[in-house]
Amino acid sequence: MAAETPPQSLVVLTGAGISAESGLATFRGPDGLWEGHRIETICTPEALAADRALVLDFYDQRRRALATVAPNAAHAALARLEACWPGPFLLVTQNVDDLHARAGSRQLIHMHGALRSALCEGCETRQPWTGDLADAPACPACGAARLRPDIVFFGEMPYHMAEIEAALEGADLFVSIGTSGAVYPAAGFVRLAAAAGAATLELNLEASAGSAWFEETRLGPATQLVPAWVE
Ligand code: BJW
User: Fold this and answer.
1) What is the pLDDT of residues 149-197, one digit of tens each?
2) Which residues sit with their C-beta closer than 6 Å to ligand 1?
3) Which residues form a coiled coil (predicted)?
4) Whole-prediction pTM value?
5) Are residues 35 and 130 part of one domain?
6) How many CB atoms lie within 10 A of CB 9?
7) How many Cα atoms within 13 Å fall on the side-chain side of residue 223?
8) How many Å apart are CA 149 and CA 26, to the nearest integer?
9) What's the gap in Å between 181 CA and the centre of ligand 1?
10) Which domain holds residue 200?
11) What is the DSSP string of 28-96?
């Protein structure tokens, strides 16, 4: 009797490119500067300490912008894929928007944090947060310390790394969508997955810093490439 083939394990990584056609700016494209600042200079613990108002304003503006955008065909296709995928499935996003969840994705890790969440600088409690942080009261949990954006700054450890690395080590297929491959550790995921024996596919508008590591790269807008790959 032939042995049954086990269901394939899939890990998908997404970046800012998947939300670009929903109207959210990417970081390193032509519209990637915010009031003259690069993300590498705003998104650091040092910047928060030196100019707290600037950093809070940056994230307050982006949190408000979430109310004006909606998931696109690429987010929707990934949610459909998860619903019918027969094996282990994990969607890891570097994005701090909530468009994957609003499209229906559930096996989802926000490795760089979330705009609609606040982190206490004292007790490190996280709580859902939809308003501005610039004028937020002290942390409701400990009543003492200040709240900051629940965002992984440069030099800080991305969230859920052990779970992500375990999924990559067991993956049969790794797919990267709309990310430049400029920021680690996410930029190294393709090499971890390939070393574990996974097939690797990149879907991006243009060739990225990591393209050479993928077995296959398909170029085009995510709203076309992702539904075409999923169906
Ligand atoms: C489309 C499209 C369409 C457009 N359709 N596609 C030297 C060497 C190596 C590493 C380091 C180094 N010095 C420091 C480091 C580490 C550092 C790092 O990587 N720095 C680099 C700048 C070199 N990393 C860190 O500090 C991280 N922590 C860390 O490493 O901890 C230690 C550790 C050790 C061991 C294991 C684990 C950890 C933390 C990184 C935090 C990143 N934070 C940010 C901001 C927070 C979130 C936010 O404000 O939104 O995360 S930076 C920013 O870049 C954001 C993104 O998630 C991230 C990646 O950007 P992404 O998504 O790729 O966007 P873009 O704009 O770069 O690219 C968009 C792509 O889409 C492009 O390719 C377009 O072509 C494409 N596209 N339209 C399809 N319609």
Assistant:
1) 999 999 999 999 999 999 999 999 999 999 999 999 999 999 999 999 9
2) 15-17, 20-21, 26-29, 32, 39-40, 43, 94, 96, 112, 151-152, 154-158, 161, 178-180, 182-185, 204-206, 208, 221-222
3) none
4) 0.96
5) yes
6) 20
7) 9
8) 19
9) 7
10) 1-24+70-112+158-231
11) SSTT--BTTB-HHHHSSHHHHHH-HHHHHHHHHHHHHHGGG----HHHHHHHHHHHH--S-EEEEE---
End position of a domain, from candidates 97, 125, 151? 151
How many Cβ atoms from other residues are within 10 Å of residue 227's Cβ? 17
Counting the structural domains of the chain, the total is 2
How crowded is the C-beta side of 51, counted as CA atoms within 13 Å? 10
Q: How far is the CA of 95 from the centre of ligand 1 (A)?
A: 9
Question: Do residues 136 and 57 touch, judged by C-beta distance below 8 A?
Answer: no
Residue 109 has pLDDT above 70, yes or no: yes
ipTM of the complex: 0.96
Strand partners for 10? 89, 173
Residue type, 3: A
Q: Whose CA is nearest to atom 20 of ligand 1?
A: 183
pLDDT bin (cut points 50, 70, 90) of residue 2 is low
Tell whether 105 and 168 lie within a shared domain. yes
- Residue 215 DSSP one-character state: S
Task: Please report, in angstroms and rounded to a whole number, the separation of the first and last CA atoms in the chain.
Answer: 32
